[in-house]
Amino acid sequence: MVSDFFYPNMGGVESHIYQLSQCLLERGHKVIVVTHAYGDRSGIRYLTNGLKAFSTLAHEAMFHARTMGLKAIFTDHSLFGFADASSILTNKLLQFSLADCNHAICVSHTSKENTVLRATINPKKVSVIPNAVDCTMFTPDPTKRHRDKITIVVVSRLVYRKGMDLLAGLIPPVCQQHPNVQFIIGGDGPKRIILEEVREKHELHDRVQLLGSLEHSKVRDVLVQGDIMINASLTEAFCIAIVEAAACGLQVVSTRVGGVPEVLPPDLIYLAEPSVKIESINQAICDKRQGRVVPPFEAHERIKKLYTWRDVARRTEIVYNREGKSPNKALTQRLERYCL
User: Fold this and answer.
1) Gene Ontology cellular component (predicted)?
2) pLDDT at residue 323 tops 50
């Protein structure tokens, strides 16, 4: 597994690599994670169950694999556009990177469509395998909820892509229309200042709590305090955060972007266009007050059956085995050129 994103940093990709690697180890494979150094964390490190990580990352890993005759499988967790300069350059690089890649894995069908278009590759070379959640770490606890208030939770990096400008526009009208609603926001980033300004301007210090940066082990403790979780992202290939929230028994309100509509059953999520209109939030609050929501433990059991890392590992193993047995056309072509 080669990635710039791995522990001790926290995030969806980091968690994906760790959990998938643990399940592949459980299935009898040897797994090594190649990532870059973090401060004094360099050299080889051994993690749980003998998962080995070392710090000599090169972005050109797939190019090196090609020159060494190794099979390469690319997993894409991102969505990119096609119009701005950054996307054009990134897509061109992806096109070159995947030219000799044996197969690609995407976390949603929307992500697959995006990758196929960006990299101009054959759709048959791309499989869809979703993310998953360790539901033993995300269990409901209704006793942690406030009895007299409805708590809306946001756990996210406070950056533009995660829709923090949108969230800043939603908070004042929601608080104005619903006096018993409060917000708990976990996470940090450059857009925190905007949320602080909104809280100051509208005098919402007693109703909007900014927790700052959270360790992943603390996310569940924040989620279980909530009744509703808001995801305001402007782009998402999958969004593991809404799965974690649903596993903790929260009703999810999310922007209808990227692969999000594929992730949760309709009765566990309210989808809205990315705007400052609050109809979906109002509906979620109304349903919560009138008891028209899925009970927390029922939601947890459903999520536990939908997304498991063992299932992800089994499906990933099928892709690895299939590609491992197929001829390496790139190596064959090079050998033919050498022989000629």
Assistant:
1) glycosylphosphatidylinositol-N-acetylglucosaminyltransferase (GPI-GnT) complex
2) yes
Token code pair at residue 309: 């890392």
Percent of the chain residues past pLDDT 70, beyond the cut? 93
- Strand, coil or helix: 266: helix
Contacts for 306 with CB less than 8 Å, ≥ 6 apart? none
Q: So what's the pLDDT on residue 330?
A: 56
Backbone angles phi, psi at 198, to 5 degrees: -65, -45
**Which H or E run includes 126?**
strand 126-128
Neighbours of 215 (CB within 10 A): 9
Which residue, 143, 138, 145, 66, is CA-closest to 99? 66
Q: What is the CA radius of gyration of the chain?
A: 22
* Chain segment 128-172, per-residue pLDDT in tens: 999 999 999 999 999 999 999 999 999 999 999 999 999 999 999
Residue found by looking up tokens 């939601």 in the block: 299
Question: Greater confidence, 41 or 275?
Answer: 275
Which residues share a beta bridge with 270?
253
- Record the tokens describing residue 233, joined without a space: 């992202």
Confidence band for 58, pLDDT divided at 50, 70 and 90: very low
Phi then psi dihedrals of residue 133, to 5 deg: -135, 140
Q: Where in the chain is the domain with CATH 3.40.50.2000?
A: 12-132+309-339, 135-304
CATH class of 12-132+309-339: alpha beta
pLDDT at 65 over 90: no
Which of 325, 316, 338 is closest to 131 using CA atoms? 316
Whether pTM > 0.90 for this model: the answer is no
Between the CA of residue 27 and those of 14, 70, 229, 251, what are the distances in Å?
A: 20, 22, 35, 35
Residues contacting 188, CB < 8 A, separation 6+: 157, 158, 212, 213
The number of helices, as runs of H, and strands, as runs of E, in the chain is 12, 12
CATH code that applies to domain 135-304 = 3.40.50.2000
User: What is the rounded CA–CA span in Å between residue 329 and residue 333?
Assistant: 6
